[in-house]
UniProtKB/TrEMBL annotation, chain A:
Domain spans labelled PAZ: 272-384
Residue ranges of domain Piwi in the record: 546-838
Gene from which this protein is expressed: PIWIL4
Designated name of the protein: Piwi like RNA-mediated silencing 4
Compositionally biased intervals (Polar residues): 34-48
Family of the protein in this entry: Belongs to the argonaute family. Piwi subfamily.
Lineage: Eukaryota, Metazoa, Chordata, Craniata, Vertebrata
Extent of Basic residues compositional bias: 1-11
Natural source organism: Gorilla gorilla gorilla
GO biological process: cell differentiation; epithelial structure maintenance; meiotic cell cycle; piRNA processing; regulation of translation; regulatory ncRNA-mediated gene silencing; spermatogenesis
UniProtKB/TrEMBL annotation, chain B:
InterPro entries, per the entry: Hen1, SAM-dependent_MTases_sf
Function per UniProt: Methyltransferase that adds a 2'-O-methyl group at the 3'-end of piRNAs, a class of 24 to 30 nucleotide RNAs that are generated by a Dicer-independent mechanism and are primarily derived from transposons and other repeated sequence elements. This probably protects the 3'-end of piRNAs from uridylation activity and subsequent degradation. Stabilization of piRNAs is essential for gametogenesis.
Region of interest called Disordered, as start-end residue ranges on this chain: 316-338
Entries under Gene3D superfamilies matching the protein: Vaccinia Virus protein VP39
Cofactor: Mg(2+)
Protein name: Small RNA 2'-O-methyltransferase
EC number(s) per entry: 2.1.1.386
Keywords: Magnesium, Metal-binding, Methyltransferase, RNA-binding, RNA-mediated gene silencing, S-adenosyl-L-methionine, Transferase
Protein's organism: Gorilla gorilla gorilla
Lineage, opening ranks: Eukaryota, Metazoa, Chordata, Craniata, Vertebrata
């Protein structure tokens, strides 16, 4: 088992929510629109598109978003952009029915709630102008809010656009108000639109209403979610606090407006940036402190002590000290120390600390250049986790243990939230004035699709549980393995002994699975990354089939430098193993088995298969993530099956800068994959099904407008006569709905293979949920599939079952995984490149699963 | 440039009514700020625990005062409920307050009501401020004002500010500074009234003001005149609070709790029927701040500080790879600080503190475990401030941090995941 990233790769043994609390989010989350909270001096530091994802997540309710709303218009909001794309109407075969049929029906409870309102409910959108015009949004809001005409009316106002649930008597209402300076201001309120409840604008307003309500329950908005800091959970050994909270949203599912809520946690570090820096300095010493410090801190999100804002650290200015002065807006100079004393009564104790630099986008003016803010490390708290922390298995385990909630625990939290909303007088008042009523929790019927058989070389096995069939196949031979004759083991003096005993074990288990492993050449190297790379350079020749490195420590440089060299400079499959892993007593057999399987795959072997009824089907997985070093680089990983049995894979990984470039490189990949298929099968595949992961909110349009056409054209160009039929499915591991089965008055995770294709899906899409992973103690999260393009015209039932089958084919784990194997392979590939290699791997390895 | 600043100056911190548009004389900082700063200075000087602001408007002054560590109860009263509601939320604790809690509890409550009604919840205050309030009272209310504020509420100190009408001729075309002002007094008028009231209710009064007149017009006095009233004979006895005559007239609403039945539990005497309807009136807003007086947050902070100190000691105890060459790794050695690199920042200790730390028991290693005696931890000023003795520290951290078998020291693994990441 390769030391790192093993947890990432498989669908089990890890709380599905663990990633959620981490810092990195592959998909850019939409910005919040917050008309309601105009009074709070809140902000969100948006720093341009390349960093949207991290920032949006942590920007605390964007008080200025209202004006953005006004300037940009509703249509551009990412939240709602995807919803306006109706893909289903173009797919004739599912226009009437998109539900499957096979399997056993199962009753499921959801985390969705009915939201009831009168049939004729409408939202009235007004535009408000002021004479004389007022620049201050705050003043505009204050004047309107305090006007008796509008008090006691449900309203949302951003300084220009006013939403009311009750129509004003006149189309144009003229009001006048007096400021306390005695000025008379005339306000003209003009009706612009009457919106039915199904309008996307209404959904936005519903979301605003619920955000207001959660604030009334003393919760704080961070990013899009709400947290309760007065009930923190502590992980003292890792200096972390977790704030419990909820992700909420209101949206239309199949013809019904539903409120959904899911438990979420915010990770905060119990230390200021200054404390972090001091500790770091103690560790590294002065020589490389600044460099390490920048590497660790830049890109992190901090929470300032004296307001509710979050900022991202974009730079550290070592030359500016708190005793230096800056110019206030009114032109006066003041030192940072004095400023914080005067403004917030905070005494800055450390006068030698450097300043954090954060780029701010200027308020209410979209196109102006970014401004810099200097922040004092002592007054900033770190939020989220560093990359380094997320790679700490112990830490992530501790977080997962704290945040893991059983289905019944989750259900209780939901019930309490709903109860609070209904019992809190302020919250209820808010709902009622809008004419809304909180309804019942939704139950629906799903289906458990039949389980799959695992095909081994001379044996068909029906696993006891699809979650883990390692025991079931222990005595079986794998489908196909190349013999390993020439290979190297690199280890240090200290680890030589363990390497030898491991080798014996490895050869034994490999033999029994039908994988012949000859004796390697064992090379002893010093314990430093450079020595490992030097030894590889020295000993690897064209005959070497595989290099195994026994790593003395978890230090990332070992893994990164070895992988970098052997994946691109000198393409040879490699296997890294932590010495510590091999020291685990009593685990040797199972560890050796897993490593033997990985090695087989890296040499081009095949482990097992499932029955695929479609002949001549190519499945493709695509994933995108950001490079860990240069965050504006996107790593696109593509994987395609190159045999009808779907056991052999071709891969490419390309580094790109924009989304449209991503589409372009898909064409390059697709052409390559089809050539490979042709080479091995002497024909082109009749069908191609693409599973596309790594899609953020609001990107659906780009996919449909750029990626699908590019894929289609590469398919069309590869053949002169009939071209392959294409389907494109967007795969999302994160989605709002949760499903539970009800048993003996308590709720449990639904069984593997549960499919939901009604009620919690969307009318305008051909979509379904599939549960293909096990959560032993936590709550399972369903994977969401949205078929955005489909020439194949498979029945929904077949599409669902094929997807389920593909979840069985990930060779790094003898069990089912949460997404189809091509997606998981693509993910593994992009992760390796983004974290360790940072450049395109050599094409010589393209036919091997070298990235496992 | 600090960002918050950008915002403030455009809207002067929410006090839109003060945005000077036509005023010929501009004060710097703006006059309302000078008034608030005046109160703030007074609070810094006298450290009152309970402060009420009558006629608090949009709660700007309360927001300025809430950062003061000495205040434990802050109350705002205003007749304009919309204003209270509109800005009320901004008095809630910041997220940072949960991470770095205050030393003392703080409760902030806003009541909707008239300032000239008796409300027993405002009894026993150390300071009551009436900033630009009295000029908004009609003659009836003005007549009742001294009796309620001085006679009934009778706080230790009262600050009253009001416009000085002698200054008005310096403004272009202004008769009254605000259309809601019922009157504006000259210095003589204000002082006569103030002296009469002070005399009657046994207060002493001192006059001052903010908003210096421009050169050449010094004789008109401050733009805002201020009277500081101090109760003669020291502080009010807090016992007035427990008196039976609870009179809650301000409309108030629980912001946090669910239903007002809680109020009944807290005030058994409220069961008396005649008072019941009044008791059920709701506060507009109330919020409690996390503080070190609350066990949960005290523990959070202490555990945190202990882990940080232990971690810091542990790291400086680690033999560095390069230096290690021939040296034995597990040998306990003193870590007074001479070996560790001098950080460019971080805590700086005085000589006394240093001596105290050096004289305390030193951390040590046994096998791959690292021990820091609690006595050592207590020598550090930050921890010493939180925790008086070893017993207390032990009982608070015991279920969060591993301790040695005899409970006298914190135990940590000598090496952890991050050490490997920092080996060069």
């Amino acid at each position: 088992m390769s030391g790192r990233a093993r947890v990432k790769a498989r669908g089990i043994a890890r709380s599905p929510r663990a990633t959620e609390v981490g810092r990195i989010q592959a998909s850019p989350l939409p910005r919040s629109v917050d008309l309601s909270n105009n009074e709070a001096s809140s902000s969100s530091g948006f720093l341009g598109t390349s960093r949207l994802s991290t920032n949006d997540k942590y920007g605390i309710s964007s008080g200025d978003a209202g004006s953005t709303f006004m300037e940009r218009g509703v249509k551009n909001k990412e939240d709602f952009m995807d919803l306006s794309i109706c893909t289903r109407e173009k797919l004739a075969h599912v226009r009437n029915c998109k539900t499957g049929s096979s399997g056993i029906p199962v009753k499921l409870v959801t985390n969705l709630f009915n939201l009831d309102f009168p049939q004729d409910w409408q939202l009235y959108q007004y535009h408000v102008t002021y004479i004389p015009d007022l620049a201050s949004r705050r003043l505009r809001i204050a004047l309107l809010y305090s006007h008796s005409e509008l008090s006691n009316k449900a309203k949302a106002f951003d300084g220009a656009i006013l939403f009311l649930s009750q129509k004003l008597e006149e189309k144009v209402t003229e009001l006048s108000s007096e400021t306390q300076r005695g000025e008379t201001i005339k306000m003209t309120i003009t009706l612009k639109r009457e919106l039915p409840s199904s309008s996307p604008v209404c959904i936005q307003v519903f979301n605003i209403i619920f955000r207001k309500i959660l604030k009334k329950l003393s919760m704080y908005q961070i990013g899009r979610n709400f947290y309760n800091p007065s009930e923190p959970m502590e992980i003292p050994q890792h200096k972390l606090s977790l704030w419990p909270g909820f992700a909420i949203s209101v949206s239309y599912f199949e013809r019904k407006l539903l409120f959904s809520a899911d438990v979420s946690y915010k990770v905060l570090r119990n230390e200021t940036v200054l404390e972090f820096m001091t500790a770091l300095c103690e560790r590294t010493g002065l020589s490389c402190f600044t460099q390490t410090c920048e590497k660790q801190l830049i890109g992190l999100i901090v929470l300032t002590r004296y307001n509710n804002r979050t900022y991202s650290i974009d730079d550290i200015d070592w030359s500016v000290k708190p005793t230096h002065t800056f110019q206030k807006r009114d032109g006066t100079e003041i030192t940072y120390v004095d400023y914080y004393k005067q403004q917030y009564d905070i005494t800055v104790s450390d006068l030698n600390q450097p300043m954090l630099v954060s780029l701010l986008k200027k308020k209410r003016n979209d196109n102006s250049e970014a401004q810099l803010a200097h922040l004092i490390p002592e007054l900033c708290f770190l939020t989220g986790l560093t990359d380094q922390a997320t790679s700490d298995f112990q830490l992530m385990k501790a977080v997962a243990e704290k945040t893991r909630l059983s289905p019944s625990g989750r259900q209780q939290r939901l019930a309490r939230l709903v109860d609070n909303i209904q019992r809190n007088t302020n919250a209820r008042f808010e709902l009622e004035t809008w004419g809304l009523h909180f309804g019942s929790q939704i139950s629906l019927t799903g289906r458990i699709v039949p389980s799959e058989k695992i095909l081994m070389q001379d044996h068909i096995c029906q696993p006891v549980s699809a979650a883990d069939w390692s025991k079931d196949i222990r005595t079986c031979k794998i489908l196909n393995a190349q013999s390993l004759n020439t290979w190297l083991i690199l280890c240090s003096d200290r680890t030589e002994y363990v390497a030898e005993s491991f080798l014996n074990c490895l050869r034994r288990v490999a033999g029994s699975m039908g994988f012949n492993v000859d004796c390697p050449k064992i090379i002893k190297v010093q314990e430093n990354p450079a020595a490992f790379v030097r030894a590889i350079q020295q000993y690897v020749d064209p005959d070497v089939q595989l290099v195994m490195c026994i790593l003395p420590s978890n230090q990332k440089t070992y893994y990164d430098s070895i992988k970098k060299y052997l994946s691109s400079d000198c393409p040879v499959p490699s296997q890294c193993v932590l010495a510590r892993t091999l020291n685990k007593q009593g685990m040797m057999m199972s560890i050796a088995t897993k490593i033997a399987m990985q090695m087989t795959c890296k040499l081009g072997g095949e482990l097992w298969a499932v029955e695929i009824p479609l002949k001549s089907l190519m499945v493709v997985g695509i994933d995108v993530c950001k490079d860990a070093l240069s965050k504006d680089v996107m790593v696109v990983g593509c994987v395609a099956s190159i045999n009808p049995r779907i056991t052999r894979w071709f891969s490419r990984c390309i580094l790109q800068r924009t989304m449209t470039d991503v589409a372009d490189c898909l064409k390059v990949f697709m052409t390559g994959a089809l050539n490979k298929w042709y080479k091995y099968n002497h024909d082109l595949p009749a069908r191609i099904i693409v599973y596309r992961a790594g899609v953020g909110d609001g990107q659906l349009k780009t996919l449909i407008e750029y990626e699908v056409p590019q894929l289609l054209s590469s398919v069309a160009e590869s053949s002169s006569n009939t071209s392959s039929r294409l389907s494109v499915i967007v795969v999302r591991k994160k989605c709002m709905p949760r499903f539970f089965t009800e048993m003996n008055r308590t709720v449990q995770n639904p069984p593997l293979g549960t499919v939901v294709d009604s009620e919690a899906t969307r009318n305008e899409w051909y979509d379904f949920y599939l549960i293909s992973q096990v959560a032993c103690r936590g709550t399972v999260s369903p994977t969401y599939y949205n078929v955005i393009y489909d020439d194949n015209g498979l029945k929904p039932d077949h599409m669902q079952r094929l997807t389920f089958k593909l979840c069985h084919l990930y060779y790094n784990w003898p069990g089912i995984v949460s997404v189809p194997a091509p997606c998981q392979y693509a993910h593994k590939l992009t992760f390796l490149v983004a974290q360790s290699i940072h450049k395109e791997p050599s094409l010589e390895l393209a036919n091997h699963l070298f990235y496992l | 440039m600090e960002e918050n600043n950008l915002q403030c100056s455009s809207v002067v911190d929410g006090n839109f009514e003060e945005v000077p548009r036509e005023m010929a004389i501009q004060f710097k900082p703006p006059l309302y700020r000078q008034r608030y700063q005046f109160v703030k200075n007074l609070v810094d000087q006298h450290e009152p625990k309970k402060v009420a602001d009558l006629g608090c408007g949009d709660t700007s002054l309360l927001r300025l005062l809430k950062v003061n560590p000495c205040i434990e109860l802050l109350v705002g009263v205003d007749i304009n409920e919309d204003k209270l509601r509109w800005r009320g939320d901004s008095l809630a604790p910041f997220l940072g307050d949960f991470l770095k809690p205050r030393d003392l509890n703080l409760t902030i409550t806003l009541y909707h009501g008239s300032v000239v009604e008796r409300d027993s919840r405002l009894l026993g205050f150390d300071l009551i401020t009436c900033i630009e309030l009295i000029e908004h009272l009609d003659s009836g209310d003005l007549a009742r004002f001294p009796e309620v504020v001085f006679g009934y509420l009778s706080p230790s100190m009262i600050v009253i500010s009001t416009p000085n009408s002698e200054f008005n001729p310096l403004f272009p075309s202004v008769t009254l500074r605000d259309s809601d002002h019922k009157f504006e007094w000259t210095r003589m008028e204000f002082q006569t009234w103030a002296l009469y009231v002070a005399n009657r209710y046994d207060y002493s009064v001192e006059f001052t003001g903010v908003g210096e007149p421009p050169a050449g017009a010094e004789n008109v006095g401050y733009c805002t005149q201020i009277g500081i009233f101090r109760k003669n004979g020291g502080k009010a006895t807090e016992s007035c609070l427990s008196e039976q005559h609870d009179q809650h007239v301000y409309k108030a609403r629980q912001g946090l709790t669910m239903l007002p039945r809680l109020v009944l539990n807290f005030h058994p005497q409220a069961i008396l029927l005649p008072h019941l309807p009044k008791m059920l009136r709701l506060q507009v807003f109330t919020t409690s701040y996390p503080s070190l007086q609350q066990e949960r947050f005290f523990k959070l902070v202490l555990v945190n500080e202990v882990s940080q100190q232990v971690e810091s000691l542990r790291v400086s105890h680690l033999p560095r790879r390069k230096e290690q060459a021939g040296e034995q790794g597990d040998k306990p050695k003193d870590i007074g600080g001479s070996k560790a690199p001098v950080p460019c920042f971080g805590p700086v200790f005085t000589e006394v503190e240093k001596a105290k730390i050096e004289n305390s028991p030193t951390p040590f290693c046994v096998g791959d475990k690292f021990f820091v005696p609690l006595q050592r931890l207590l020598a550090y000023p930050k921890l010493n401030r939180l925790c008086a003795n070893e017993e207390m520290m032990r009982s608070v951290i015991a279920d969060s941090i591993p301790l040695s078998s005899d409970g006298s020291a914190v135990v940590a693994d000598l090496r952890n995941y991050f050490d490997e990441q920092f080996e060069f």
